[in-house]
Amino acid sequence: MAIITIFSADFCKENKLISALSEKTEFKLTSVDQILSEAATLSGMDKTKVKKALSFKTSVFERFTHEKQFALAYIKLVLSKMLMVSAGRDLILNGYATQLIPGEITHFYRVGLISDMQSRIKEMMETTDKMNKKEAEKAIKKLDTEQLQWLARYCEIDDPFNPADYDLIIPMNKESVEDASDLIISHIDDDIFQPNAASRQAIRDFNLQATVEVALAAKGHNVIVHANRFKINILINKNVTRLGRLEKELRSIVSQVDGVEEIEIGVSKHFQKNDIYRKYDMALPSRVLLVDDEQEFVETLSDRLILRKMGSAVAHDGESALKLIENDPPDVMVLDLKMKGVDGIEVLRRVKQDNPSIEVIILTEHGSEDDRGKCMELGAFAYLHKPLNISELTAVIKEANEKIKQFAP
C-alpha cells in the first residue's frame, strides 16, 4: 500500500472523501492539527503561531521574528520524522502541509480535488451558517487567491493543480464521494506507489534538510536549504553586506548537524534585490508595537529601535492598534497616553482585558499623577514621560521582554 496525500481547493468535499477513505482502507489519518501540535511542541511556539505558517497572511513583525519560516521548518521536521518512522506506509495526509513534501519521494499517491465554482458555493453555503451566494463566491475567490500566493511563495508552485504533479485529479462536481474514494482505492496497490531505494533516500534527505533548516532558524537565519545524500546546499536569498562572514557562520552551524558531510553555499536569483538579510536575534524584543498619533515621532522612534535590532511596527491611533492586536498581538506595546479618538487609557484597559500577556509601556508628554496611578492600576508595565532618551526606552522594553520570557509557558 501507499501513502495517500490529498490536496484540495476549498469546499471540494475533501473532509467527506477523507472520512470515506479512512473507513474503507483503515489507513491512519494524520491530520493537519496533529502535525501543527507536534511542531508547536518541538519548537516551543504557540500553536496559533505555527498554524499561521500555513496561511498566506504574514505578521507585521515577520521580518524581525522569522516566525513563519521557523514554524515551517518545524512542520517539515515533523513530516520528515513521521515518514522516517513509518517508512511512508498506510497513511493519509491532507492540506497545505502535503505540498512541503519533496517530489523526489515518489511512493506518494498524490490526489488533487477540484470542482466548479457553483458546486463549491453550494458546499460552502451548506457548511457555513448565514452566508448567501454572493458572499460565498467572494470568500471562495479570496481563499483561492491566498492558496495561490502561499504555494508560490513557500513551495515555488505556480499551478496548484498541474496534472503533472498528481497521480489523480478528481472533479468532485462530477464524482460522488463514494465513487471518488473507490477510484483512489482501486490504484493503491500499484507498483509505482511502493517504496524503493531512491524514494527512501529522498525521505532521509528531507529529514536532513528539515533538521538543518531548524538549526539555522534557531540561530535566527532565513535561507534556502536543499539536501542530497549528506550534502547540504544553502542559498542566501537576500542582500548582505558581509557575505563572507555570513557564509562562515552558516557553515559553522550546519557542520554541527549530524549526518552532514558536505556544505555548499551560494546566492539565489533574488540576492540582488533591495531586501536586506536580517538575522533574528532571539535575545532582543522583536514584536514591539508603537502607538502614537504623532506620525513623524512614532515613525522616527520605530527606525531608531530597528537600528538597535528591535523589531517594531507602528499604529497611528488607538482603534488601528486594537484592530491589529486582534490577529497579530505584539509582546510589548509602547502606547501614547493622549490620542484623538480612543485614548491610551482605553486602549490599555482593553488590551489588558483581552490580552493580559502583552506588556504595555505608557509614553506621555502631558500625563498627570492621577493618570499614572490609573495606568499602573490597569496593569501598565511602566509609565514614562516624553521626551526621553532612546537608551532609557530600549532598556525598559528589554525589561518588559524579559518578564514575558520569565512567565512564558
Tell me what the structure shows.
By secondary structure, the protein is of the alpha/beta class. It has two domains: 3-193, 3-Layer(aba) Sandwich (Rossmann fold); 288-404, Rossmann fold. The chain contains 15 helices and 13 strands. The chain has helices at residues 14-25, 32-43, 47-51, 62-65, 67-86, 117-127, 133-155, 177-185, 197-218, 243-254, 295-307, 318-327, 344-354, 369-378, 390-407; strands spanning 3-8, 28-30, 91-94, 108-114, 168-171, 224-228, 231-236, 262-267, 288-291, 312-315, 332-336, 359-364, 382-385. Strand 6 (224-228) and strand 7 form a beta hairpin. Helix 6 (117-127) crosses helix 7, helix 12 packs parallel to helix 13 and helix 13 (344-354) packs parallel to helix 14.
How many helix segments? 15
What share of residues is helical?
40-55%
Protein structure class: alpha/beta
Work out the count of structural domains.
2
For the largest beta sheet, what order do the strands appear in spatially? 2-3-1-4-5
The arrangement of helices and strands along the chain is EHEHHHHEEHHEHHEEHEEHEHEHEHEH
Q: Looking at the structure, what is the overall shape?
A: globular
Number of strands: 13
Report the radius of gyration as a whole number of Å.
25 Å
How far the N terminus sits from the C terminus, by CA atoms, comes to 41 Å
- Look at the structure and give the CATH class of the largest domain: Alpha Beta
Question: Mind describing the biggest β-sheet?
Answer: 5 strands, parallel
Average pLDDT level: 90
